[in-house]
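Q: What does the assembly look like in three dimensions?
Context provided by user:
Components: two
Sequences:
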Amino acid sequence: MSCCTPGVADLARSTAESGRQAAGGAPEAIPETVDVTPYVQTDPHGRHTLALMVEGIHCGGCVKTIERALGAMGGVESARVNMTTRRLQVAWRGAVAEGGAMVQRLGDLGYRAVPYDPERLSDDDSRQEKDLLRAMAVAGFAAANVMLLSVSVWAGHAQGMENATRDLLHWFSALIALPAIVYAGRPFFRSALTALRARRTNMDVPISLAVLLAGGMSLSETIQSGPHAYFDSAVTLLFFLLLGRYLDRRARGKARSAAERLLALRSGAVTVLEADGTRRVMPADQLQPGMRILAAAGERIAADGRIVEGTSELDSSLLTGETLPHAAQPGARVYSGTLNLSAPVTVEVTAVGENTLLSEIVRLMETAEQRRAKYVALADRMARAYAPVVHALALAAFLGWVLLGGMAWQPALLIAVAVLIVTCPCALGLAVPAVQVICSGRLLKRGVLLKSGTALERLANVDTVVFDKTGTLTLGRPELRDTDADPLDLRAAAALAGASTHPLARALARAAPDAPVPEGVREEPGCGLAWRDAQGNETRLGKRAWVDAEAGPAGDHDGPELWLARPGQAPVRFTFDDPLRSDAAEVVRALQAQGKQVVLLSGDRAPTVEKVSGALGLADWQAECAPGQKVARLEQLVAGGRRVLMVGDGLNDAPALAAASVSLSPASAADISQTAADAVFQGERLAPVLEVLEVARRAGRLVHQNFGLAFAYNVVAVPLAMAGFVTPLIAAVVMSASSLAVTGNSLRLGLAKTATGWRERSPNPSPLKGEGGAHVRQGVGR
Amino acid sequence: MSVLIYLIPIALFLGLCGLAAFLWSLKSGQYDDLEGAAHRVLFDDDENDRNDRSPG
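A: Here is the predicted structure of the complete assembly.
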């Protein structure tokens, strides 16, 4: 991105702001001061530090804007944005409460900031990642230098090097290799010990054995001035395995930090109305029953409760899949996650924590997850079968040579070690992580965020795809139907509609974006909009009954509608529906052409679902599904031996997402659904579903090829090693060659062209850059 | 061949210098924000800006 000039930064900022305003975030919706005190850390010198996750950072310009704005505040010593993780570290002297002012300043600039506890959040993870990197650096240094010395030894063999020189080189190798093994081998030794203590065996057991035995044997050979030293094999092995481990850890860490961001951003601040009329802002998870909370128009209601004041329209499409907003008066029950559309309401909290609808959904989700057979990663499954075989072969070689071959135990042990070294699972340790990293990087570029390490493997053999309707197959927001209404009528209606955040009004305003909004438009919650001109004539836009349009043309449309009534003119009707994503039909057809069964499960009413499934050519559909029913259907499919991909966005889909073999969710989905899903995709199109499946299929094929390659190497090398023909030279060459071959094979994926050609048609070449902002805009704007 | 006695230690010492430099850069957090660093080089901290940050 080359938008680092202040001008563009301002533009990005104002876009973010207008996005927020369009999303209904009226100025009063921004909390006055957020209480961040619990997150502020103070050192003995009176310096406060605060860590924030910032949403909406797109480019270097944003970084500069934020750092300058905070730097200009009094007492601030440093403000530093990490653009990779979108986190901000700010340090200041003075009052602790200044932190709240900083969050507010960021809010004014258009960036939403959420404090987090850096100790708790993934710090452990990055520490381990650094540990691995350090171990890798040491192993790499040792491997390069020992290999240099070994090459001299091998060349010396041919040119008649003196034994004394060879021993000297061996001693140098020992000096480098042994400390490196002790330092860089710790991750493997630790894991192997843990496994052995639990009376299990994992891949790290043969690795540790091979490295330790090779090191020990080589040392004893060196002491006895023998020819066989395996120092180079031991450290090269460590280096390659650490590389694989590091890639794996990084892919997982990225996935986890994405999930954590989602979780942290969910816990937004709530405005609480105290008994004495003052307002206080607190985190949603500290609410108590009986408290009164304010929900401005355009805000999501933060807790289950009952409306005590205000009349508004509520959009519960994320909860139920229902497209139409419904009116709510004082006394009506509301649920956390509902979007408040037209007017501010005061809600008395009736349930928190365990008793809310959200927790009910989470419970359903968790039980579904528990019932689902735990997926074991392919590499782990291979390792379980592989480790005992390797041990048995090495033991057999040792015993065979000692008992049957009549060999002394030292050379026999050397042969056993050679077997362990050549069978060492570089393919398992390196090939799978390499494929994973390349695939997730590739998908990330196309706006698909993989959240689970095993998602690709599970996606690779999907044979059934289940879709949700609202927000998944459809855009999840009403659009004005192609209407034959007079353009002048449309302009007049759009002008009024521009003053409201109601989804129907916004759809109208989108249809005629340049219509000027008149002053003094009044919004009647649950009814519509009214505007009085200078002569006192009232123009009304709203419900049929409210605008007195009974005389107008009869309605044959079952979807939402708005009526425009002007003094002295016949009322005009505008109809809306929730349009399909532009490529929904194409994607469904492509999936069916691949022989996959496609199912539609929706919480919406039957006529609507029937119409959509008819338009898409889907025979298998079910309407008015409760979350439990969706789970039941999915479990029935899974029990029938099908591998099911669930694509859904609503809160009501979250349990089903957890029950499916693997799940996808659009970035506009409810937070909890994004948390439950294995991958999240961006954009207005459905094509990423196809792309993900295609990439996963290719990744699966590559991983299997890699295993095949590694197996072929072993078939050749193991008999040689058992027969005692493998010298340190052959062991080192075979091992490195097989590692390089599988890595090279994995890298092919990075070169391959996209199969679906989606990239060319993608509206936004780098959607993830705007991930946070897009998420908020879509999430709140529905 | 006796030249090896000091050539190898020199080679190792140079290698160790490289390793130490890498470990130092890792420790000082130079790999924490690879994306941001690419943009930061383009910021120009002009005079006004510095005055803003540290008055006096």
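Follow-up: The longest strand of chain A covers residues 47-55.
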